[in-house]
Amino acid sequence: MEVAADQEKLELSNVEIMQE
């Protein structure tokens, strides 16, 4: 399933947003 991959991408995106 690609859902897990999408969730990982979302978490990575959230980390980048928090670092700003």
Automatic annotation (TrEMBL):
Q: Where is the composition biased (Basic and acidic residues)?
A: 1-11
The name on file for this protein is Uncharacterized protein
What superkingdom does the record give? Eukaryota
- Please tell me the species this chain comes from: Aphis craccivora
Q: Where is this region: Disordered?
A: 1-20
